């Protein structure tokens, strides 16, 4: 980490550093930080263990980049970042680093973790139940966190069946909005439908973000199968018909391609 910090310092040194790196700010680097986090998740999902060290390194570089820019502005430095996370982990694990017994179930530890985080939020004057849920999270992940927070104070459906009923209701409202309302109203109703879909996944113990990533991967692999099969006859999807591509899609399904 020290070597990486030294490299970052060289890159940000005026006149002798890298012009691109010197032009960056917190705002311009944020998209890269998010992208690198997603690339870590992608490598794990693909079980690409040989790629994971490099992807984790890229993510670590983002931490160092932000820390260096903060140090230049007199805000904090990398040592402060690392101290903060060390202190947080120790404070949030009193059953490991403190006097509390570690004879707890994972479920109980999760409850205790949430109590500690709630106390931390209170110390930051975050009084509302939903305060502190990061705006920059992917929308599906943020919806899940918002719903989990609300559920902890009793604002929740009792079962997945209740959510399914709501899902049907929201789907009907989307259809009605499509036929009779404007684009803004349609966007709102579609958003409501997606929000309920996240809630359904939550009630079924599923991570919506992970489920959609898997669905994207499956679609990509199956469509690639269509392209490969068409290429065998010197054609591309644009040269084919929907019926033929649908048959090839079903071929990929029969192969249980994921």
Automatic annotation (TrEMBL):
Sequence similarity: Belongs to the nucleoside triphosphate pyrophosphohydrolase family.
Organism: Paenirhodobacter enshiensis
EC top class, as a word: hydrolase
Domain NTP pyrophosphohydrolase MazG-like: 24-97
GO molecular function, one term: ATP diphosphatase activity
Catalytic activity: ATP + H2O = AMP + diphosphate + H(+)
Biological process, per Gene Ontology: dATP catabolic process; dGTP catabolic process; dTTP catabolic process; dUTP catabolic process; response to stress; TTP catabolic process; UTP catabolic process
EC number: 3.6.1.8
Record keyword Nuclease present: no
InterPro entries xrefs: MazG-like_dom (IPR004518), NTP-PPase_MazG-like_C (IPR048011), NTP-PPase_MazG-like_N (IPR048015), NTP_PyrPHydrolase_MazG (IPR011551), PRib-ATP_PPHydrolase-like (IPR021130)
Protein name per Swiss-Prot or TrEMBL: Nucleoside triphosphate pyrophosphohydrolase
Record keywords, A-Z: Hydrolase
